[in-house]
Amino acid sequence: MPRSPLPIADIGVRGHALCQQATRDLAIAHLRPTIPEHDIHHHQHTDMHLVLLLTGRYVSDAAGMPDVCAEPAVIFNPPGTEHRDRFRSRDGLFLTLTMPAATFARFCDGLPSNDQPRRLPRPSLATAMRLLHEVWEWDEASALAIESIFSELVVDAQQAHTPGATDTLQRVLDRLEDDTGTPPTLQELAALADFHPVYLARAFRKRFGLSPSDYLRKRRLHRAISLIAQRRTLASAAADLGFVDESHLHRAFVAEFGMTPGAFRRLALGRAEVSRIQDARLRRC
After folding, report:
1. Are residues 31 and 13 in contact, defined by beta-carbon separation less than 8 angstroms?
2. Backbone angles phi, psi at 139, to 5 degrees
């Protein structure tokens, strides 16, 4: 796929770019927000853009998003999306993948249309995290890799749009998302859905692709992304999130995202910024 002579910002989302790449068909950028919240007004995007939120307090109109999202999320915005999505402050980190509407239409030719912005299912986060590696380690195969990753996310967006999540299962999901204390028992979750525990486990796996316990573990692991990007130590993040120790978190992070927490931190913060932090620490020693 040939590179585009057009500036990346022509089809991108505005922000301070830590790293960015583009072809004639897509633009991908790793960004920090630059515009104050009060300066962002209701607007429309003519292009498709996918947002991988890494850290920061983010407000979005997308279906499935809380009033203020303070954890990693993947947001799919089809062409023509009108919204006032914004960060509450400028200390966030995010990645955007953008594609002109005509290109997106060709890319999705024959697939069911999905014209509403929405948060993608939690398992989509591990898929989207592979984009971070590609934007920083760009080579001749990166455009193909990004299109392949995006294809998986488009399928996830269609699944998120498919009716079938009953109100009862949604109550179970909401309880797992509200992970603020002792994990619930299967019997407690079944009571929320008015299911027999055996039937609940089966229905939950069929609808969401994993067991309630694995969903809870995945949610806690995903929260580690923001903590690590905020320069928290691995030991501190592990303690806050209920892991046995930092080795336990390290192993789970590698298994989920295919990179070590340290490698993710270097990518998330940008290599130059990490180098400045390390140099400052050496000067204090």
Report:
1. yes
2. -145, -170
pLDDT tens per residue, range 72-110: 999 999 999 999 999 998 889 999 999 999 999 988 887
Decide: 33 and 94 in contact? Cβ < 8 Å. Answer: yes
Q: Which residues contact 237 (CB under 8 A, 6 or more apart)?
A: 224, 227, 228, 243, 246, 249
Q: Could you tell me the pTM of the whole model?
A: 0.84
pLDDT in tens, 230-260: 989 999 999 999 899 999 999 999 999 999 9
Nearest partner of 76 among 117, 131, 123, judged by Cα: 117
Tokens read off for 207? 């609808």
Nearest CA-CA partner of 49 in 71, 82, 72, 19: 82
Closest-CA residue to 95 (of 168, 157, 26): 26
* C-beta separation of 172 from 204 below 8 A: yes
Nearest to 78 by CA among 98, 96, 59, 53: 98
